[in-house]
Amino acid sequence: MADRNFRWVVLTIFALVNLVFWAGVAAAVGLAGSPSLNLGLENFLREGQATAVAVWEQLGQPPSGPAASVEGGAAMPASASTASAGEQPMAAVLSPGDVAPMSTPQPNTTQAAVPDQPPAAPVPTLVSSPLLLTDPQIQSLTDLDAELARSAPDRAVQIRYQEATLNAEIAALWQNNPDLPYRDVRVDLMRDQVVITGKVSVLGFGVNAEVTGNVAVENCVPVLKIEQLRVAGVMTPKFVKDQVEDMVLEAMTWYPADYPLCLEQIVLEDTRATVYGYRR
Predict the structure, then answer these.
(1) What is the pLDDT at residue 146?
(2) Mean pLDDT of all residues in 238-264
(3) pLDDT tens across 61-70, in order?
(4) How far is CA 263 from CA 30, 151, 170, in A?
(5) Within a domain: residue 196?
(6) Can you give the residue range of the structural domain that contains 204?
(7) Could you read off the pLDDT of 206-236 as tens digits, one per residue?
């Protein structure tokens, strides 16, 4: 009985001690979180902050005395003679908010040298007086091209061909181009009519042909108007005549459509042809 009472007394004392211990822990935690607790750390931080502010304000104030003059927020030495031997001159100090003066760049007024320009070539004067050419070479139209190059627009042009010269030019044309499908071509000029005779190659055979017609102008280009076509041979079917006609018309398409000389009229006379046109 006595042992059981002793055990209850021990347990009661242990429970009270445990209660007092945890109550002390709770009181210590509350005190640590209270703003009234001051362990000296707050005073130490405040003193350090006040000291730093004082030093910063002292650096921001210009030095007193003749040591330096202030201009634009920077302290500069007043004279080199005021510095004592062995002392270093005071460097310029900029306070927070001051801006260091900057030099304004001066515009470059020096003009770049202009290289000497060569004198402009004189503009050639275009010729507008009427141009007359007699028997120009068909193979080489260099003279005609040169005249057209220095001709003013709408300059009148007249070209005259004699029948003999024209046939000589046609013969030279065939000799320089032996692959042409015709040969022995001759032109007989009459009033308002031209007769062309020669030999053409059809299906590998040489066929004599004679074309009678007139030469007109359409869109600045000469055009042959066939009035009659004769083909000599043992057999002359229609397709042969059609092929000869196509070859003759194709031979008249040598004149370039964009040539500077625009043809207006071709006049046929006995043994002579005259071409009228103008410079485009």
Answers:
(1) 87
(2) 85
(3) 555 554 444 4
(4) 121, 15, 20
(5) yes
(6) 131-279
(7) 788 899 999 999 999 999 899 888 887 555 6
Determine the Cα–Cα distance for residues 133 and 261; give it in Å rounded to an integer: 13
The side-by-side arrangement of strands in the sheet containing 205-218 is 182-190, 193-202, 205-218, 221-232
pLDDT in tens, 168-208: 988 888 788 888 788 889 999 999 999 999 988 877 777 88
Judge whether 274 lies within some domain: yes
Q: How many domains does the chain have?
A: 1
Question: Quick check: is 159 in a domain?
Answer: yes
Residue 28 lies in a domain: no
This prediction has a pTM of 0.53
CATH of the domain at 218: 3.15.10
Q: What is the DSSP letter of 194?
A: E
